[in-house]
Design brief:
GO terms for molecular function: hydrolase activity. This is Isochorismatase family protein. Residues 3-159 form the Isochorismatase-like domain. It holds the Pfam family Isochorismatase. Keywords: Hydrolase. By secondary structure, the chain is of the alpha/beta class. The chain has one domain: 3-Layer(aba) Sandwich (Rossmann fold). 37% of the residues lie in helices and 21% in strands. The protein contains seven helices and six strands, in the order E-H-H-E-H-E-H-E-H-E-H-E-H. It has a six-stranded parallel β-sheet, with helices on both faces. It starts with a strand and ends with a helix.
């Protein structure tokens, strides 16, 4: 069974930029999964660092209003991996999930770490590149002009173990 993982679509990240396009694609995928009865699980990051936009207990940690109405199950995490010290594995096993689709924030951290951790746990993984977003830029990493989503997508795709698709490819292949 397939499941959609929506990672860290929270006020503290979404409010840092214009992510309407990415959130629109996430919304479409959530709707697709809901319509065919496939599980949709939401991850929510919280930090103890007072400078973090995702400070535990702050408004920044709340799921963004654009998607919070969909959230039947929200799992809190404190590291980039959605699996580390959470009950995500147990939830996926309980639901009979063997194929995990990855969307959310931040492409190069939580989405990538979770995709790799999912593969390491034996899941088939599909990373929907344009349904991920990041608050960072090439300048953040002192690599002017770096397209972070494309770079992460390329690295994961080259691994030959994680499928990387654009939303339109997802629609063609899976809906």
């Amino acid at each position: 069974m397939k499941a959609l993982l929506v990672i860290d679509v929270q006020n503290g990240l979404v409010d840092q930029g214009d992510f309407r396009e990415e959130i629109s694609l996430m919304d479409k995928m959530i709707t697709d999964f809901n319509q065919d009865g496939s599980p949709v699980l939401f991850m929510k990051h919280s930090d103890e660092d007072e400078d973090s936009p995702l400070l535990k207990g702050s408004d920044g940690t709340r799921l963004h209003p654009s998607i919070e109405g969909y959230a039947d199950l929200v799992i809190e995490k404190q590291t980039p991996s959605s699996f580390f010290n959470t009950d995500l594995s147990e939830e996926l096993e309980r639901r009979g999930v063997d194929h995990l689709f990855i969307t959310g924030f931040n492409t190069e951290f939580c989405c990538m770490f979770t995709a790799i951790a999912a593969y390491d746990r034996g899941y088939e993984v599909t990373f929907v590149e344009d349904a991920t977003a990041t608050v960072n830029s090439g300048d953040t990493y002192e690599m002017a002009g770096l397209d972070i989503k494309d770079f992460v997508g390329t690295v994961l795709s080259w691994s030959d173990v994680i499928e990387v698709v654009k939303y339109e490819e997802y629609v063609e292949k899976y809906t």
